C-alpha cells in the first residue's frame, strides 16, 4: 500500500498523467492523411455528427458538458454529416440556421429531441423549417428561401470538402487540429473517448507552445471570429 501511495505522489509531482499514457495512436485515435490546415494560435476540435444518428443523440450530453468545461484556447465546431440518403436535408438546415443567425445552442438539442424523442416526421425542408423557427422571430418561408442561397451552398460545399479530408465515415467522430480522428469504437464509454480528446488537445497545445497569455488571447480571437 505504501508503495502505491508513493507512486501516486511521484506521478502527481512530476506531472505525469497515468490516464494519458493509455491512449495509443492507431488504436484509440487515427492520424489523418494529408491533414487539413489548422490555426497555429489555438487548438481546433470538430464534432462530426448527424441528427438522425442515435449514437449522436446519446453522445449529446457528454459533448455538451465537455464543451462547457473545455479550455479557453480550444475552438470547438460542429459539422453535420450526410452519411445516409436523406441526411443532406439536415446539413442544409444546420447551415441555413447558421447563416440566418439563429441560436444554434438552443436549436441543436431541440432538433435532436424532435427527431428522437418527439418522433416528428421530417420529410422535407418545410418540416425542418417549422422546427427551427418555432422559438424564433424568423418565418418558415424565410428559412426555406435562405436554404437555397449562395451563402448556404458555400457552407455545405466547404463542409463536404472538410469531411472528406478528415476521413469521417461514422458518427459521432471528433477531429483534433485537423490531424487526429477519434470515434467511439475503441472506447468503453463516451467519457473515455473525450479523455482521449483532452489528451490530444493538450498535446497540440504544447506543440504550439501556447502559454497562458497566448491561450487567453487565442480564445478572445476565436470569440471575435464567431
Descriptive tags:
5 strands, alpha+beta, 9 helices, single chain, 226 residues, 5-stranded mixed sheet
Q: Secondary structure elements and their pairing?
A:
Blueprint: H1 2-14, E1 30-31, E2 43-49, H2 54-69, E3 74-80, H3 88-99, H4 104-116, H5 125-133, H6 140-147, H7 150-166, E4 173-176, E5 180-182, H8 190-207, H9 212-225
Parallel strand pairs: 2-3
Antiparallel strand pairs: 1-5, 2-4, 4-5
Helix pairs in contact: 3-5, 3-6, 3-7, 5-6
Quick structural overview:
The protein is an alpha+beta fold and about 230 residues long. It has nine helices and five strands; from the N terminus they run αββαβαααααββαα.
Kindly describe this structure.
- Helix 3 packs across helix 5 and helix 3 packs across helix 6 (140-147).
- Strand 4 and strand 5 form a beta hairpin.
- 53% of the residues lie in helices and 10% in strands.
- Strands 1-5-4-2-3 form a 5-stranded mixed β-sheet, with helices on both faces.
- The longest helix has 18 residues, at 190-207.
- The chain starts with a helix and ends with a helix.
- It is of the alpha+beta class and 226 residues long.
Amino acid at each position: 500500500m505504501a508503495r502505491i501511495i508513493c507512486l501516486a505522489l511521484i506521478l502527481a509531482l512530476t506531472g505525469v498523467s497515468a490516464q494519458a499514457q493509455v491512449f495509443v495512436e492507431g488504436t484509440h485515435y487515427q492520424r489523418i492523411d494529408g491533414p487539413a490546415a489548422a490555426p497555429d494560435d489555438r487548438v481546433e476540435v470538430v464534432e462530426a455528427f448527424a441528427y438522425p444518428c442515435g449514437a449522436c443523440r446519446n453522445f449529446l450530453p457528454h459533448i455538451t458538458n465537455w464543451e462547457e468545461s473545455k479550455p479557453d484556447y480550444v475552438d470547438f465546431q460542429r459539422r453535420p454529416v450526410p452519411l445516409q440518403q436523406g441526411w443532406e436535408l439536415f446539413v442544409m438546415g444546420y447551415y441555413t440556421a447558421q447563416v440566418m443567425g439563429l441560436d444554434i445552442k438552443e436549436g441543436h438539442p431541440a432538433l435532436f429531441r424532435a427527431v428522437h424523442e418527439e418522433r416528428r416526421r421530417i420529410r422535407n425542408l418545410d418540416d425542418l423549417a417549422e422546427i427551427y423557427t418555432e422559438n424564433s422571430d424568423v418565418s418558415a418561408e424565410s428559412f426555406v428561401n435562405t436554404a437555397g442561397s449562395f451563402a448556404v451552398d458555400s457552407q455545405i460545399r466547404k463542409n463536404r470538402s472538410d469531411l472528406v479530408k478528415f476521413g469521417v465515415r461514422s458518427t459521432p467522430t471528433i477531429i483534433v487540429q485537423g490531424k487526429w480522428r477519434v470515434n467511439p469504437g475503441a472506447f468503453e464509454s463516451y467519457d473515455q473517448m473525450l479523455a482521449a480528446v483532452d489528451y490530444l488537445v493538450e498535446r497540440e497545445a504544447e506543440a504550439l507552445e501556447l502559454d497562458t497569455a497566448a491561450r487567453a488571447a487565442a480564445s478572445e480571437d476565436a470569440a471575435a471570429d464567431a
